[in-house]
Structures are given as structure tokens and as C-alpha cells.
Amino acid sequence: MVSRSAAIVEAKNVDYYYPGEGETVWPALSGINLTVAQGEYVALIGPNGSGKTTLLKLFNALLTPFGGEILVQGISTANEETLPAVRQACGMIFQNPDNQLVATTVEEDIAFGLENLALPPAEIRRRVEDVACLLGLRKLLRQPPHLLSGGEKQKVAIAGVLAMEPRCILMDEPTAMLDPAGRQDVIDTVRDLNKRQGIAVVHVTHFPEEAAWADRIVVLNEGQLIVQGSPEDVLTDLSLLHELKLQGPAAVELAALLREDGYRLPPQILHNRELVDSICSLERKN
Ligand SMILES: Nc1ncnc2c1ncn2[C@@H]1O[C@H](COP(=O)(O)OP(=O)(O)OP(=O)(O)O)[C@@H](O)[C@H]1O
Ligand SMILES: [Mg+2]
């Protein structure tokens, strides 16, 4: 049963504790309320240990909440029978693609999740072919995954998730192991999927420049959702970010230093291009 609401994933007053931690341990998450809408791109940020990975695992039903409820397309993740539907709707991509690649060729790897759906072989081949085309992986289909570059491996992991035709992709620091070109490639790929296919994305990242492209920023601290809002509002609030030991995007940090030195720059500069354009227009006026 699919809910009529446009929500893809919802956390309703969710609490989570890792079991066996003793009496004095803080909850990993407490009182989390968050709804991710169809087609939305949400960046989830927060310091180490703030609960970001735990929340993604709850969305993907790798964990179930101790209090409250997680709904994926209106289906509770607490129900064992509907787990396959939840996992199909909400695919997860981890930081290290090596942990996600299991087969001996790229083709088998992409098909791995599909085998469990008991689809006809022709349908499996069609889906593998389609996602390989979409992500530019066709030439690599017969390669062993361990021979690929980090960025290529992460794309194979994304392809395996996409082949399941999910409505939402959950990404836990998917670019942390990649060089700048690999990072950009993975981010461009996911942004494109979000914009063109309307696949919702929840993206955990420690790179503020990546978060800046999201529709909405959600900030966790010590297991609580403390702020959410547009990138223009949240990522330019340097006093909040610095208090949490986080940083703003490079353009935001630089703009703040320039303002301290007396340059009159507009308040919501977020991206490098905006900063450069603002500086150039200042010089032209002088
Ligand atoms: N398997 C586990 N067993 C016990 N405690 C855990 C486990 N995994 C996480 N925790 C604890 O739960 C809290 C939240 O951890 P989580 O991994 O969700 O944080 P995070 O925001 O993803 O951090 P990071 O930015 O370092 O990846 C932390 O206090 C962590 O120590
Ligand atoms: Mg984490």
C-alpha cells in the first residue's frame, strides 16, 4: 500500500539507542521528525557522532527505531514482511564502495539486488543495460569491480541501487574516498538523476560545497535535529556552523573575511561563482 502523500521517507518522533551501551550513554537519536518529499534533495550535516549514519540506516530499515516510527512510501519499516518493499524504494550507498561490491564482474554486481526480486532474466538484462548506459558504465560491464577506480566503483554501487528503480537514494558520505574529479563525477551523476528522474536524495556529507547544491539542509547535533532550512539560510549561518565545529562553503567563509575587511558583499553568497561575480562588480564600481 502506497501513501497518497508526496512523502517518500518520514521519521516521526524517532528515538534510537544502540543496545548494550550501559546506563550513562546518550541516545544516538532522539525525537527526530523529518519528512523527505518526492523529488527532493536533502543534505544531512552535523559533527561526528551526531547520528547521521544512524538516521540513514533507519530510513533503509537496517535499524528499526526504539521509539516513534519510520515510514517509507507510507510503509512502516518495523514490519518484517514489507522490508523488501522498503529496501527497494530506498536504496543506500555507503562511503566505501568496496564494501558494497560483491560480484566478479560489474554486470553481475549491478544485477545482484535484482536477482533477489525474482525478475525474469530478460528484465534483469534490460535494467542492467539501461543503468550502465545512463551512468556511462557499458564499457566496464565485463570488468572485475576491484580493477576500477574509486569513482567508477562508486558509480557501479549507484548503478546497483538504481537498477532496483528506487524512489529515494540514501548516500552516506559517498565521495569521502574519492579524488576531486571522482567526487565531482559522482555528485553530478546524482544531481542529474534527482533533477531528471525525480529520485529523492538524502545525502550525508562533510563537504559543505556538496551540501550547498541541496534543496534543503538538515542539521543534526548530539542525536537531535537542531536546524533545517534552505542552503542560503543554513550554510551562511557561520556562527551556528562554527559552534558545531563545522565549516561553511569556501565562498561563504571567504565572503565573511572580506566583509570583516570592509568589503560590502551581499549577504547570501553561497557558491564560488557568486563570490567572484560580487567581487568583480565591486571593483568595477570603484
Ligand atoms: N554500532 C554501534 N554501537 C554502539 N554505538 C554506536 C554504533 N554506531 C554508532 N554508535 C554511536 O551512535 C552515535 C551516532 O553515530 P553515527 O554513526 O550515527 O554518527 P554520524 O553522525 O554518522 O558520525 P560520523 O560523521 O562520524 O560518520 C555516536 O555516539 C556513535 O558512537
Ligand atoms: Mg556517519
How would you summarize what this structure contains?
The chain is α/β, with parallel strands linked by helices. It has a single domain, classed as P-loop containing nucleotide triphosphate hydrolases (Rossmann fold, 3-Layer(aba) Sandwich), CATH 3.40.50.300.
Task: Kindly describe this structure.
This protein has 11 helices and 10 strands. It has 286 residues and is an alpha/beta fold. It has one domain: 3-Layer(aba) Sandwich (Rossmann fold), CATH 3.40.50. It has a 6-stranded mixed β-sheet with strand order 6-7-8-3-9-10, with helices on both faces. Strands 2-1-4-5 form a 4-stranded antiparallel β-sheet. Helix 6 links the parallel strand 7 and strand 8 (200-204). Helix 3 (106-115) packs across helix 4 (121-134) and helix 3 packs parallel to helix 5 (150-162). It is globular. The structure holds adenosine-5'-triphosphate and magnesium ion. The site of adenosine-5'-triphosphate has 11 residues, from helix 1.
Count of separate DSSP helical elements: 11
Strand content: 15-25%
- What's the architecture in CATH terms? 3-Layer(aba) Sandwich
Shape: globular
Major beta-sheet overview: 6 strands, mixed
pLDDT < 50 runs, ≥5 residues: 1-5
What distinguishing features does this structure have?
286 residues; alpha/beta; Rossmann fold; 6-stranded mixed sheet; 4-stranded antiparallel sheet; disordered N terminus; binds adenosine-5'-triphosphate; binds magnesium ion
In terms of topology, how is this protein built?
Blueprint: E1 7-16, E2 29-37, E3 41-45, H1 52-59, E4 67-72, E5 75-76, H2 83-89, E6 90-93, H3 106-115, H4 121-134, H5 150-162, E7 168-172, H6 180-197, E8 200-204, H7 208-211, E9 216-221, E10 224-229, H8 231-234, H9 238-243, H10 250-260, H11 272-285
Parallel strand pairs: 3-8, 3-9, 6-7, 7-8
Antiparallel strand pairs: 1-2, 1-4, 4-5, 9-10
Helix pairs in contact: 3-4, 3-5, 5-6, 10-11
